[in-house]
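During the no-cost extension, the postdoctoral fellow (Dr. R.K.) reprocessed legacy sequence entries with the updated structure-token encoder. One reprocessed record is reproduced below for audit purposes.
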Amino acid sequence: MHSQSKKWGAYHIYIDGFAGGGVNISRTTKDFVLGSPLSVLRVQPPFKEYHFIDFDQQKTEQLRDNVGRRADVFIHQGDCNNVLLTEVFPKISANRKMRGLCLLDPYGLDYCWETVQQAGSTKRIDLFLNFPIMDANRNALWRNPERLPDDRIIRMTRFWGDATWRDIAFTEEETLFETRTKKTVSDDFIAEAYRKRLKDKAGFAHVPKPIPMRNRRGGTIYYLFFASQKPVAEEIVIYIFDKYRYKGVQR
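Re-encoded structure tokens follow.
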């Protein structure tokens, strides 16, 4: 990114859709540690602008206190989908020299497909995004889908973009007395289907295989995806992902 800035004046923006308050508590040491917003502000060379978004007003106020007064930092309180679609992404689309690196790292199914698709359509935004498979399994990818409440179906469809997730996640089997629908595919299969959507539907040219992020018991909490238009960006991320893929990365 820095080489692009020097070569043709690219203007790079960093975006965090679920920024939090800027400081977290380590689960192992119980010490305070820097969250992603304060960590990225230390990266050199810096981005031209930083856009931090969080739905929780208390967290955005805490982040303002932690960041201090900086002309290059913009803190937004609200639903990240609305903020990105109405404020941040249009700004990048309107300026041909702007490029964005956007992090979408929620705990649950909290960003919608429209947001991801809009990022892809700009051709100027790279994404790191977490596919929260554990939350998806708890909310929608049940072994017995006939019992799914309507609100959970709506939530998963909003996240996925359409109802095709049901065809991918569930299969029908014939028993002696009835036809039953149940989940038989693996989490890896669902993640691969989402990777295909990022390429075919959202328009990202390069989407390497995601890395599973696991808890202490080895269960996958989410898959970390990267989506870009640039082959060199994909090569760098593949190197990083492969370095940690088989080390049981934990969150």
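The chain has ten helices and eleven strands. Residues 97 and 130 are 27 Å apart (CA to CA). The remaining legacy entries will be reprocessed before the final report is submitted.
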